[in-house]
Amino acid sequence: MWKPYSKSRKTRTCSSLSGYQTTEPFASSLFVEIRKRMGEAVFEGFRRAIIAAQEGLKPVTPEPPAPPASTTSSASTESVAASRQTRSSITSPEDTPPPANPEPTTATPTHQGQLILDATVVEQTIRFPTDLSLLNEAREFSEQIIDALCKNLSVDPKPRTYRQKARSAYLAVAKQKRPGAKVLRRGLKQQLQYLRRNLRHIERLLAPLAEGPPLPYRVGCCIATG
Question: How many distinct structural domains can be found in the chain?
């Protein structure tokens, strides 16, 4: 949408328009066509003119006037004599012999930690969700629902969920860096079977309850925070 006026007067884009309009006053490629028609030589002249105008705005520091020739020669002679006298009185670092056994200086660093220079890189504890990990979380969540239902409905004994075997089967695949397709397919099938069994247990536990009333409060809290 074309906005000929902005909120600030300083950033007004097009002051020749009488009011607001939704249509563009000219095509977006108009300036490209104008540049092609005028040629590169004209725009090169524009660029040089802009650079010359910018250079002209910079303050020019005047150079100090040069002293007379006689004064310059006498001053240079005196400066050379003074420098020779100073060199003769002060020994240079090359003349001084180096120490016999120089001791190495080891400075202990005061900084600690790790510095990340790129601001777009931020360390976060967010893992990439995979099918296997999502199935494992769903299985653990279903086990929590079964525990809460059995506790509130006084069901004894609890239905068999094989949670330890399911956990071991999940870790056997998840700990591998690059599991093969057959291993991954077997692991997904196992987690689906464990989850399917847990869902059947949940439906069996909810069967005696009448349809309509919500679950007990404690069961709802366990499911929400699970």
Answer: 1
